[in-house]
């Protein structure tokens, strides 16, 4: 995570935002009153989706089970019926 002061952030806002969007690198912006973290919209939406999925009862366990399932125990994507 990159850290910058609010003063440097104001001076370089365009390039800092552009790098955050391009490289999904969070930025910690420090101020005398506290800090803020800027993330890309892509990262934000991913966090929101993760929170949504893990709020569904039993979903967290199913996701962990899926992560631990070897690919050899799954069917090819083209055989999945939606």
Describe this structure in words.
- With 82 residues, the chain is an alpha+beta fold.
- The protein folds into 2 domains: 38 residues, YefM-like fold (3-Layer(aba) Sandwich); 29 residues, no CATH class.
- It is 49% helix and 17% strand.
- The protein contains 4 helices and 3 strands.
- A 3-stranded mixed sheet has the order 1-2-3.
- A hairpin with a 2-residue loop joins strand 2 and strand 3.
- It is elongated and about 55 Å long.
- The protein starts with a strand and ends in a 15-residue tail after the last helix.
- The model has no long low-confidence stretch (mean pLDDT 95).
Strand and helix layout:
Blueprint: E1 2-5, H1 6-11, H2 13-23, E2 27-31, E3 34-38, H3 41-54, H4 59-67
Please provide a brief summary of the model:
The chain has helices spanning 6-11, 13-23, 41-54, 59-67, and strands at residues 2-5, 27-31, 34-38.
What strand line-up does the widest sheet have? 1-2-3
Would you list the SSEs in sequence order as H and E? EHHEEHH
Can you tell me the CATH superfamily of the largest domain? YefM-like domain
Main sheet summary: 3 strands, mixed
Quaternary state, please? single chain
CATH hierarchy: architecture of the largest domain:
3-Layer(aba) Sandwich
């Amino acid at each position: 995570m990159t850290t910058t002061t609010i003063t440097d952030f104001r001076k370089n806002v365009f390039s800092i935002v552009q790098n955050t969007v391009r490289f999904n690198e969070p930025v910690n912006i420090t101020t005398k009153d506290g800090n803020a973290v800027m993330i890309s919209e892509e990262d934000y939406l991913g966090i929101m989706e993760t929170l949504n999925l893990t709020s569904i009862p039993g979903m967290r366990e199913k996701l962990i089970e899926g992560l631990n399932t070897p690919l050899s125990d799954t069917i090819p994507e083209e055989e999945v019926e939606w």
